[in-house]
């Protein structure tokens, strides 16, 4: 039985990799206006402390708190270091400190997902849920900026793209579990009671729920771009001794 299940999984994985993914196009129920959709979204920038020595690492953290509605946004915009691309660092005299090394955003690689008879151009997405905070860390600000002794202020701005629709990529293990449920339901062995079948199916359904709950593997159709919201964080004060 175990060998059969392993073979079934391998076959399903092969189908999965060849066909791209099994998807369902869904429409976000949030407003069609970007300003309204992003109402209440807050960017919170912070460091672990306000004063650092000349050689001490300076960790930075950005919290992106969702507003009134769930938002469909690019993964790289809220879950990678690219969120720090537009930092503004200012010295004591009000001069902008230019980075010694740019924070290069990862590639927004586009993929094509088959939906019915059409091929939909997509990018990897992320659902920023209402009233929840997505935290993105930057290990050490010194990797990108040269700091002399003095006082500095740091602010972050972001043009956050918002999308209407998404395609969800189903976990291959979910597909296998669903096939296993179908197999169990077809079993007509007299030695297997209806209660045992219900129990086995229930266990598999619970596994499916856990997998789907953990999965945030969604893709945003490029043509469903609603617009971009201009967001600005708080200002952080920093002293280098």
Strand content: 25-35%
CATH architecture: Sandwich
CATH topology: Immunoglobulin-like
Number of domains: 1
Q: Which structural class is indicated by helix and strand composition?
A: alpha+beta
> How is the main sheet built?
6 strands, antiparallel
If helices are DSSP runs of H or I spanning 4 or more residues, what is the number of helices? 5
Unreliable sequence segments: 1-22
Q: What separation lies between the terminal Cα atoms?
A: 67 Å
Note the run of SSEs as H and E. HEHEEEEHEEEEEEHHEEE
Shape: elongated
* CATH class identity: Mainly Beta
Quantity of strands, as a count: 14
Mean pLDDT, all residues: 83
**Which percent bin holds the helix content?**
25-40%
CA-atom Rg in angstroms? 24 Å
How would you characterize the overall build of this protein?
The chain is an alpha+beta fold and 241 residues long. The chain has one domain (23-169, 219-240): Immunoglobulin-like (Sandwich), CATH 2.60.40. It is 26% helix and 34% strand. The strands form 3 sheets. Strands 1, 5, 7, 8, 11 and 12 form a 6-stranded antiparallel beta sheet that branches. Strands 3, 6, 10, 13 and 14 form a 5-stranded mixed beta sheet that branches. Strand 7 and strand 8 form a beta hairpin.
């Amino acid at each position: 039985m175990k060998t059969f299940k392993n073979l079934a999984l391998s076959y399903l994985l092969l189908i999965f990799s060849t066909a791209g993914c099994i998807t369902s196009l869904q429409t976000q129920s949030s407003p069609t206006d970007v300003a309204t959709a992003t109402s209440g979204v807050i960017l919170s920038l912070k460091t672990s402390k306000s004063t650092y020595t000349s050689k001490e690492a300076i960790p930075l953290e950005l919290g992106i708190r969702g507003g009134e509605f769930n938002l469909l946004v690019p993964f790289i915009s809220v879950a990678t270091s690219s969120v720090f691309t537009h930092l503004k660092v200012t010295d004591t005299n009000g001069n902008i400190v230019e980075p010694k090394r740019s924070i290069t955003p990862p590639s927004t690689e586009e993929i094509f997902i088959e939906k019915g008879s059409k091929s939909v151009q997509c990018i990897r997405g992320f659902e920023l849920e209402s009233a929840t905070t997505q935290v993105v860390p930057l290990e050490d600000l010194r990797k990108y900026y040269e700091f002399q002794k003095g006082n500095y202020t740091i602010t972050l701005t972001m043009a956050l793209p918002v999308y209407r629709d998404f395609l969800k990529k189903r976990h291959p293990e979910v597909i296998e579990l669903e096939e296993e449920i179908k197999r169990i339901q077809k079993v007509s062995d007299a030695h297997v009671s209806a209660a045992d079948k219900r129990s086995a199916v229930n266990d598999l359904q619970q596994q499916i729920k856990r997998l789907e709950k953990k999965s945030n593997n969604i893709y945003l159709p490029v043509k469903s771009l609603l617009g971009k919201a201009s967001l600005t964080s708080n200002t952080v004060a920093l002293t280098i001794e």
